[in-house]
Amino acid sequence: MHNLYVFVTGPLAWAAFILFVGGSLYRLIAMLILAVRKERFIFSYMSWKYGIRSILRWITPFATENMRRHPILTIVTFAFHICLIMTPIFLLSHVILWDESWDLSWWALPDGVADAMTMIVIACCIFFLARRLVSREVQFVTSPSDYVILAIVAAPFVTGFFAYHQWFGYKSFMILHILAGEIMLVAIPFTRLSHMIYSPFTRAYMGSEFGAVRHARDW
Amino acid sequence: MGEPAKIKKMEDNGLEVGAERLTEDRIEKVINSVIKGETGARLKTYVDTCVHCGLCSEACHYYLSNDNDPHFSPVGKVKQTIWEMLKNKGRVSPEFMKKASEIASTECNLCRRCAMYCPFGIDVAYLILVVRRICHMLGITPLYIQDTAHSHSVTMNQMWVKADEWPDTLQWQEEEAQAEIPTLRIPLEKEGADIMYSVIGPEPKFQAQLIYQAAVIMNTAGIDWTMPATSGWDNSDMAMYTGDNEIMGRVKRAHFETAARLKVKKIVMGECGHAFRSVYDVGNRWLGWRMPPFEIVHAIEFLHDILKEGRIKISRKFETPVTLHDPCNVVRGGGLHEMSRYVVNEMCEKLIEMHPNREHNYCCCAGGGVINCGPPYKNKRVESNRVKAEQLFAAKAKGAKVLIAPCHNCHSGLEDINHHYGLGLEIKFLMDVLYEVMDKPE
User: Fold this and answer.
1) What pTM was estimated for this model as a whole?
2) Chain A: nearest CA to B76, how far in angstroms?
3) Which residue in A32, A213, B288, B343 is deepest, having the highest Cβ count within 10 Å?
């Protein structure tokens, strides 16, 4: 068990971070190269003003027509993404790990708050799962990979939750938690989780086309 | 949750005969050549970024009008077409292509409303156009719209208007209008005029009174204008919608070059939406112009300007309450919605807004080449826009009796909706109303 722990926190963690950062850069650069090679016009239509206008509009809760049409989904989506990103970065035990390994330290969430945020992520994942199963228009375009991606996202939080509360099998859950986190990091550049990398660009491009060329709103 | 509504339709030989000629090998080759040769970062990024959330569904009038049948949601249509092609690396059956062509050409108006509902701003209209392009390369395009593209190719206009019929029609309308205003002219081939006025093929073919009205407005406003006597007069473009980009480019080049030959300062277009899209947004790009080489002024903007400058006086405002339809290509595609409201308010006593409106207005379900796919799809087209009928009925309930639609496709599509659902609205162009209420010279 100890050897496994050393492996997942050592070489595997390195591999995961390298694949995450390297993979994300690779995907980003590959997209830009493809654009330069085959659709260079995209750059001439990109507008900082309208691109940023569109991004800001779409990261503000209830600022778009569609968000107002689906208030529950809007709340769930924002809560999910905020907790998903903030919790791992500001979790005290993670900050301590950074501090021990790299002498880097920053503000941390109180444990109770982080615990609640973890539960929010898990609850949101259950909501997304239910929506995929129940909602006809979502079900129709769902493929098995959508469930896998959802599981990949939920896993670090579920295992982390169990490990934190030390209900049973602490060590096993800790190792599973680390493994799940690593899988998720690697999955970001290589699955549809890559919307994390691409969405600012697609949003900015549509915002630019709507704003600068078509003089219309895109929300 | 019943079975999806089955909509009766007739056979389309463009698809039937087209599919008979196809083999899986040929399909595979063509799909991959289009994907590899003509698409790039947009297609790849859109497909990789879509998280299959279905949030675009409620943007689509097809989806809403067909009882939320997921086959008609924007992403549902993408799934049934381009996703399958990519997943199978182009190896799909002729039967599949037949269905894909029908979906791409007759179940999407490319109105881009869904782009405003997708959290990532994925351009579904572009994805559907890629499908139409593939269908074009495979020779499996609905017959009626293909015939229109042929007309563009042969005559440089949409309606097989022959070279002599065009100036003849203009002179006929000039003579007609001279009965009303003896000094009126439709100046042909006037080099150095301020404005070249261009229209779509159907105007000389069967709506010549629109040219008459435009001539009265131009003459009254004292505009220095001209119309070409040669081809290049037609600003419409169905080739843009069949995926025949080469013909689209030829048609747009002829249009721009005619304006250049006449040394005009700008092009003013009649009340057509898709033509505006082709001249202002799409055709120019194909020809390598970031923005059009001429200033492009849609009729809405032109009327706005001449009313604002006081070049036209209103003798008595239009009394019947009106409602205003915002065509996708000039509103979501050109931002002219406040100008059209200015024009309507100048001309009419009472404007009753339909809801949703402006960028969020529901499509007419005729544009994007759908109405041009002809009779086999008419029932589907009209039944797939129940939501428009409901929207118009609500405006009627508030008192609107006249529906103003400053776009040809919208006009024809809305006439069908009006008739099918028994709305009893009178549908007019902006210039129909202006002609009626303006001060004319003796």
Assistant:
1) 0.95
2) 6
3) B343
Mean pLDDT over A92-103 rounds to 95
| Band of pLDDT at residue B197, cut at 50, 70 and 90 | very high
Q: State whether residue A65 sits within 8 Å of chain B by CB.
A: yes
Q: Does B171 touch chain A (CB under 8 A)?
A: no
Going along A112-209, which residue ranges are E strands? none
Task: Indicate yes or no: CB of A137 within 8 angstroms of CB of B359.
Answer: no
Q: Which residues of A touch B52 (CB under 8 A)?
A: 138, 141-143, 146, 192
Q: Nearest residue on chain A to B39, judged by CA atoms?
A: A38
Please report the domains of chain B, with CATH numbers, ordered by start residue. 13-141 (1.10.1060), 147-308 (no CATH), 322-437 (no CATH)
Does residue A218 lie within any of the structural domains?
no
Separation between Cα atoms, residue B274 and residue B363, nearest integer Å: 13
Kindly report the number of other CB atoms within 10 A of residue B216's CB atom: 21
Strands B295-298 and B322-324: unpaired
Contacts of B323 (CB under 8 A, 6+ apart): B351, B352, B353, B354, B392, B395, B396, B400, B402, B403, B404, B425
Say yes or no: A40 contacts chain B, CB-CB below 8 A. no
Which one of B48, B57, B285 has the shortest CB-CB distance to A198?
A: B48
Indicate if the pLDDT at residue B1 is higher than 50: no
What CATH number is associated with residue A24? 1.20.950
Is B121–A139 a contact, with Cβ atoms under 8 angstroms apart? no
Contact B116 A39 (CB under 8 A): no
For A215, which residue in chain B has the nearest alpha carbon? B335
Q: What ipTM goes with this model?
A: 0.95
Number of structural domains found in chain A? 1
The domain of A203 spans 2-213
Instruction: Find the mean pLDDT for residues B226-252.
Output: 97
